[in-house]
Amino acid sequence: MHFKNPTDEEIKEILISKKRIAVVGLSDNPMKTSYMVSAVMQDAGFEIIPVNPSADEVLGVKAVKTLQDIDGHVDIVNVFRRSEYLPEVAKDAVAIGADVFWAQLGLANDEAYDYLKAHDTVSIMDKCIKVEYARLVR
C-alpha cells in the first residue's frame, strides 16, 4: 500500500470543521461496528446520513440507497465496505463533491487513493473516525 494519510493536525481540523457524514455500509444492526461508531459520532454532534440499500432507517435517520440520493453537500464519506469496493465508492464520493473520503480501520486501496488524489479529494484510510475523534478532538 502506498496511500498517505493527512497529518494528525489536518485530521483534527477535518473533525472540527466537517460535521455532515454519509456512512456507506451503515448497518441497522446495533451489534455491528458501523452502527456503534456512527452512534458515537452522532452523539458527538455530527449529522449522520446512512447509506445502505437494504435499510429503511438507521439511528433514527432515513437511509438512502446511494451517495447520489443525498440532498445537499456531504463533508465526509465514511466507508464501511470491504477494501475491494473502495474504488467504486471513491468515484461516487468525487461525483457528489464530498470533501473527505474516509475508509475505516482495516480498509485501504491504492487504486481508490490514486483516484481521490487525482481529483483533489482528501482521503484517509485504515483509521477509525471514532478513535481519531476521541484521540485528537475530545
Annotation keywords:
138 residues; alpha/beta; 5-stranded parallel β-sheet; two-stranded antiparallel ribbon; globular
Task: Give structural notes.
By secondary structure, the protein is of the alpha/beta class. It is 36% helix and 18% strand. The protein is built from five helices and seven strands, in the order H-E-H-E-E-E-E-H-E-H-E-H. The strands form two sheets. A five-stranded parallel β-sheet has the order 2-1-5-6-7, sandwiched between helices. A hairpin with a 2-residue loop joins strand 3 (57-58) and strand 4. Helix 3 (86-96) runs parallel beside helix 4. The longest helix is centred in the N-terminal third of the chain and has 11 residues, at 33-43. The radius of gyration is 14 Å and the shape is globular. The mean pLDDT is 97.
Percent of residues in helices: 25-40%
Largest sheet: 5 strands, parallel
The poorly predicted ranges are none
Give the C-alpha Rg: 14 Å
How many beta-strand elements?
7
Topology:
Elements: H1 8-17, E1 20-24, H2 33-43, E2 47-51, E3 57-58, E4 61-62, E5 76-79, H3 86-96, E6 100-103, H4 110-118, E7 122-124, H5 129-136
Parallel strand pairs: 1-2, 1-5, 5-6, 6-7
Antiparallel strand pairs: 3-4
